Amino acid sequence: MKIISLYCKLTLLAFLFAFSGARAQTNDVYVTSVTFPGNYVVGDYVEFLKTTPSNAGASGHYEVSISYTRGNIAAAATFLVSVSHANPDVWREAGRINKGGYTESTVESFAIDVNSQYGNVRFRVRAMATWGVAADITVHIKVRSVNFTDSWIPLSAKGNTAAPAGLMPMTNEWNLFVGNPYSAASAKVAIAANINGDVGIGTRTPQSKLAVAGTITAQRIKVTATGWPDYVFHKDYQLPSLQEVGNYIQKNGHLPEMPAAAIVEKEGQDVGEMNKALLKKVEELTLYLLEENQQRKKLEAEMSALRDKQRVLEQQLQALQQK
């Protein structure tokens, strides 16, 4: 019995040791801080961490939070970083998912950069402003591995650089599915963003910067456009005659410079271009009306002159009849 009891204790200890070791290897959170001197300048940086994402670097998904205070400022931010297998050796700025600037979002002094080089993933904190009094400033940093990470290696490399050449991807794609988990029905696609930066509402396959599979309700929509057709009112504009317009309609079944119904049904319609085309037709119609008004006034003047002549002739005829 003593031998069995001892065996059980050893087994339990081995299990606890293995379990604690497994937990230690996950390395979910890394906390540190770096201090910049009071005379630091924009572009100064400190490389503070090297990490090893698991599974040949494919599992690199990190949240990096920073906070700092100096004199009359206090700010914080959280960044999201996505690292995958065999990434390039280049520094890029991480994207923010939370921003707590002092009094307003623009009052912040530091950003997080990432070099996602395969086998040498590194993080650095970089100064992009020097808010506050001229005193040393400590940046508190917490890195959370959302996926799996094999190790954290502290660094302390310092230097100065211009802003990174690009932005670090936060994800390959992003989706928001909504629905009632109680129901067996498939969830609905609320929002989807693809690798090209296209956003879909109600669709997972946007083909433009914003694709909406459904009805849009808005109080106001602003469309910017160039080439607004005020040139129609220039003196050198060649206004087509109504006869020419009529001939075109007779031949094509729609107004000149306007798309045919079949094309709109197949390819859709650019709202900005359509507004320009409609305005041009309104301006041309205005010119036709002005021209018609001038002709009408001319005819009225001629009719008035004819009536005056007729009145004189009638008076002369009446005088002759009285003799």
TrEMBL record:
Question: Where would one find the signal peptide in this protein?
Answer: 1-24
Coiled-coil annotation reads: 282-323
Q: Which UniProt keywords apply?
A: Coiled coil, Signal
Question: What is this protein identified as?
Answer: Cell wall anchor protein
What organism is this sequence from? Answer: Chitinophaga fulva
Question: What lineage is this protein's organism placed in?
Answer: Bacteria, Pseudomonadati, Bacteroidota, Chitinophagia, Chitinophagales
